[in-house]
Design brief:
- By secondary structure, this protein is α+β, with helices and mostly antiparallel strands.
- It folds into two domains: 2-101, TATA-Binding Protein, CATH 3.30.310.190; 108-173.
- It has helices at 10-13, 16-27, 68-76, 80-99, 103-133, 139-157, 164-173; strands at residues 2-5, 29-33, 39-43, 46-53, 58-65.
- It has a five-stranded antiparallel sheet with strand order 1-5-4-3-2, covered by helices on one side.
- The longest helix has 31 residues, at 103-133.
- 21% of the residues are buried.
- The model has no long low-confidence stretch (mean pLDDT 90).
Length: 174
């Protein structure tokens, strides 16, 4: 499962998941939409594509691709390699339109998110270490730090990148 940043205004202009499913019909075959507007489709080597816009404004996709012997058999068929290339192209074009970002921009956004997660993890480690080593930190400060750490960890578990401000507050506390 992957989550992609979506350019501001795209979800609204596409009418949410209904528009996303309509967009999917331009790129994939056998598009089926459930009552929540989540679609499932396929095309060539992409045996299953499931996608939806989440409540926090991200595009969440789950893609299954042919592997192993199935993929080898598919590629050895007449036009198999061309269809495989076409499926990758369709996938990329779908993501371009569904997110409003190019492949390079999506990669940059993913790096940004990863950096935020990394900074948060580092701040949590440093906070634990500071609490452990310091003898002057009050119990009130320790409790506040544990509260902030729990908040950051919850955000990270949910897949939400903690803001720099929250991480900075934890660092500044200790």
């Amino acid at each position: 499962m992957e989550r992609f940043e979506v350019k501001r205004g795209i979800i609204k202009s596409m009418n949410g998941n209904a528009g996303l499913a309509k967009l999917a019909t331009e790129f994939f075959n056998d598009v089926e939409v459930n009552s929540d507007g989540v679609f499932t489709a396929s095309f060539a080597i992409l045996t299953s594509v499931t996608a939806e816009y989440t409540s926090d404004g991200k595009l969440q996709v789950d893609v299954e691709q042919m592997k192993g012997e199935d993929l080898s058999d598919f590629l050895s068929q007449d036009g198999g390699r061309e269809k495989a290339m076409q499926s990758r192209s369709r996938w990329s074009n779908f993501l371009d339109q569904a997110t409003g970002y190019s492949a390079k921009q999506r990669g940059d956004k993913a790096k940004e998110q990863a950096k935020k997660f990394s900074k948060a993890r580092s701040a949590i480690k440093m906070a634990h270490k500071s609490i452990e080593m310091s003898s002057t930190v009050t119990q009130e400060t320790i409790d506040k730090a544990h509260e902030m750490i729990a908040e950051l960890e919850k955000m990270m578990e949910e897949g939400t990148a903690p803001s720099e401000g929250r991480v900075k507050k934890l660092n500044d506390l200790l």
